[in-house]
Amino acid sequence: SGVGAQQEREITLQEWLSKWETGNIGFHKERGHPLLQKYLDVLLNGRSGLRIFFPLCGKAVEMKWLADMGHTVVGVDVSEQALKDFFAEHSLPYCEKPVPEIAGAKKLQTTSGNIVLYCCNVYDLSSSIIGKFDGVWDRGALVAVNPRDRNRYVSLMITLMEKGSSYLLVTVSYDPNKYKGPPFYVPESEIKSLFG
């Protein structure tokens, strides 16, 4: 029943923006995520030069880490501040370009083009705009989208994946009766049904 308590919970994009504006970003990991280091081999599977997608990326330090290994990283976040902070904190020069297919969206990319971050709503993206990916690092994205949007979110992710790509998903486990989220609680049974 606890999971049901969260079904109607809805966080607006404005609420996420204000988290960044006020520095209320306890979800950001300064040193990178230990689980990505632990499961990196699963994501890469012996392959080099991959395209890796970071949904709801914030200013995740792993984007730089993977780009430095020779991969191309594409991220998306509604917070332009988060994306600009990412480039500033890693002293990476970047340029800004409009995204013609999406009104009001822009992409910030390194001069070499190995990191491209879209500032827009994730649901405005499609494979025709950003291409397909060999790997997805979903840390704090599925658990952050509003529960009623999960099917929509996962359907989008599946359309962005190449055959044989890896999807690393980090979820959180807790008693949903005691905490209203985000992050939201997504039980393993639901993960299995979402991703089939």
UniProtKB/TrEMBL annotation:
Reactions performed catalytically: S-adenosyl-L-methionine + a thiopurine = S-adenosyl-L-homocysteine + a thiopurine S-methylether
Subcellular location: Cytoplasm
One Pfam family in the UniProt entry: TPMT
Keyword terms, alphabetized: Cytoplasm, Methyltransferase, S-adenosyl-L-methionine, Transferase
Keyword Methyltransferase: yes
GO molecular function, one term: thiopurine S-methyltransferase activity
Record has S-adenosyl-L-methionine as a keyword: yes
Any one Gene Ontology cellular component term annotated for this protein: cytoplasm
Domain of life: Eukaryota
SUPFAM superfamilies membership: S-adenosyl-L-methionine-dependent methyltransferases (SSF53335)
Location, primary (coarse class): cytoplasm
InterPro entries tied to this protein: SAM-dependent_MTases_sf, Thiopurine_S-MeTrfase, TPMT
Its EC number(s): 2.1.1.67
GO BP term, pick one: methylation
Family matches, as PROSITE patterns: SAM_MT_TPMT
Family: Belongs to the class I-like SAM-binding methyltransferase superfamily. TPMT family.
Full protein name: thiopurine S-methyltransferase
Organism the protein comes from: Upupa epops (Eurasian hoopoe)
